[in-house]
Amino acid sequence: MSKELSYPPQDKIDLFDQLIATNPDIERKGKTNPYTSHNGHMFSHLSKTGTLGLRLPKEDRDTFLEKYNTTLYESYGAIMKEYVTVPDELLENTAELKPYLDISYEYIQTLKPKPTKKKN
Question: Domain total for the chain?
Fold first, then answer.
């Protein structure tokens, strides 16, 4: 039995890439599972259904959840407590979403780097 790969819809990938392009310090990773990370910590993730999750510090997370009437992000059946679900309408508004991407990137830089598991 072959397992069919599932990709996010191309329009959502394009919007995600457009958002990432607003910050030259951020590199998009993952071909089938688009995400961003820094020092081993993921801070954005585009699900196979095209839903964007963004990692935010507590105060900004609470503000975001209330302002956009959204929920914590769920991935593979698990609630990701530091991530918010970005509403589709906001994903389509790169200019409005960009400050939150920048906050997410700044936040992730405050976390201690995870040790790498790569062998030389």
Answer: 1
